[in-house]
Amino acid sequence: MSLLAVLGVISSAIYSGTSLLYTTLGEVIDERAGIVNLGLEGVLLVSASLGFAVTKTTGSPYLGILAAVLAGGLMNMVFGYLVITRQANQLASGLAVMFFGYGLSALIGKSFVGAKINPLPRYVLPGLSRLPLVFSSLFKFDFLIFLVVPMAVLIWWLLYRTRWGLGLRAVGENADTAFASGRNPKRIRYQALLVGGLLAGLGAAHLTIAYTMAWSEYMTAGRGFIAVALVIFSNWDPLRAIAGALIFSAAVAFQLLLQSSGAQVSPFLLNTIPYLLTILVLIVWGGNRKQSAPASLGRIYLGSE
Amino acid sequence: MKNKRFVMVSIVVFALVLLAACGPAPTAAPASTAIPPVIATVAPTVAPTVAPTVAPTKIPTCLIVGALYGGPMNDAGYNQAMHESMVAMAKNIPCVKLIEAENVPDEAGAKTTMVNMIQQGAKLIFATASNHQNPAVELAGTNPDVTFEIAGGWLMGANYANYYADVPDSWFAMGVAAGSMTKSNKLGFVGAFPMGWTSTFINSFELGAKSVNPKAQTFVTYTFAWGDHAKEADATNSLINQGVDVITMHVDSPSAVLSTAESRGVYSIGFQDLAAQQFAPKGWITGTGFTLGGTVTFLTQSVIDKTWKPIFLRCKMSDGCMALAPFGPAVPQAVQDKVKQTLADLDSGKIVVFQGPLTDQNGKVKVAAGATLSENDMGSLDWFVPGVVGQAK
Question: What is the torsional sign of CA B376, B194, B318, B369?
Fold first, then answer.
């Protein structure tokens, strides 16, 4: 295994980890406010298809990103209406939103399958431009990649260092108490879902407009659920989510590398490595760490008297 | 609290399983089989009656034709190629009325779709995905007045038969192109699943590359999905990072693999549809695509003329069933000539791709001296020839 191969795993982890991290950050906010959004896969698909369609139609990846972000917010508002205003079961509503997203995204993206778009410009890290192209192209990033870690820090700051974040976490722990202290749990939950949806939209935009530059049906291939798993993996902490997204994506890249380096292991087995790793971490961390799941996660807020 | 975490985890696991179960069915290259000699003279039986296309005079419908595809018609891949052959046929025979249905990946949906087409008066149905064969054969029994043609199928009866191009041969020629262009002697192949036909293509590709460059190796990586573009990009990058400088693929839509290869500055070779090269204007070597318009026209015309007979139709590149994509700007004339010569030799039978003796990676004899690989073996092949790096099962 050469230096290039090792650097390649890091590069792939950063590239495919970026969309995963945005999405995970969005779900962290949702869950901190006490809402499990299993519809994330559908939200991602709708954002991705719309973002791609707008990029293709207008020729501008930036407008595409904007459309994807807004679509993510809007999809989460639909979900919010179900689980906050109509007080429907979160898990069932999430799955419904997911299947709705499958259909809607296929419809939106129908005439854009196989289309070629203007991708988001990539910039070589300073000082690396003199390396050969195979090396320098590994670390040629778009602005969404540069922004993702600052975004995680920003989300951490919002959650733990602002009054809004305190209120949001309070609603996630105990909505009645939050209400008693003068906060409006429903409004806060809507706000959390909106921010979460915008972030998911950003993740979808990176996946389709910046990284793969392609759209096809169901192209998120379960990343929405991986993000939900990563939230647990990272203990509902935006900063740990950085590590979670990177480790998971590195595991994917690593098993692809193993496959093609002639390892005497079945590719079927190698393909399960990232998921086995996730399960392993959940087992190890699950038993002996302080629980930090929001106390009323998944619970419907029926209003306070 | 512990319970809650458990519930969450199990829901996520459940959802993932659910998701895996309803992923899109494979629509890529169904079974093609070996070639009974020269059945397919795709004679353009319809002389292009120079009808001025400007003034569309009302032509009475002579035949209603139904066509169904496993995926979207504009995927720059397999389904688009199948769709284009139908469009070519409808243009050649203007009195045909064409009914098309896309995104029909599964058997149940295919059956409903075909029943619907028959109710609309279709007397000829082209079923183009591997999952369409069983329902087509079933409906052929109950609708003796309707003719069924299955792309890549292998079953035949009174009113159903099949047609396809000879795909493994074309991969040998692509191997020749790749083996001539590579500087690192490392070629990369992104596959969707480790399945028989994909392995056959990979072997054919490697044998072609080795015929011009004994040092050429083919590195294989699977994504385990027909359309997971992010993983395709990851897989492509992973291959390039090991020194591969020519990339090719067998997935539904080649766009993500080609775009990634282009952004890394390596060569690429396309497959399934000729429209693919727009994704790699610089690094494009060449590619092959299905051009079954002539075959479909021939079959349709024979139904109109009532001369249709069930034939096991496999046609070669020289018959016009697959076409070589234009060469990219980086390909020298000598290489272009070599690829074209290889295709001519394959057509004339001078080169037989899977001619024994052939061994697998461990040196075990898989095709004995003097024998050739049978069509059944190609469909279920699970070994790689020496020179391929990767596991086939």
Answer: negative
